[in-house]
Hints:
Elements: H1 2-20, H2 22-27, H3 29-51
Amino acid sequence: MTFLLVVLLLGLRYILLLYNNKKFIYNNFFYFILYLCALEIAPLIIVLKLTV
């Protein structure tokens, strides 16, 4: 239940991030993808691998 809530809140955070910054994201799309891979997705994968 807690895990589902965390995933839901993270999803909402990403949707709000995209919606509020869409002009900036479209102008710098490469850097946005780089940010997602390096600073958002990679730590989640590392934590998941360490706990499983």
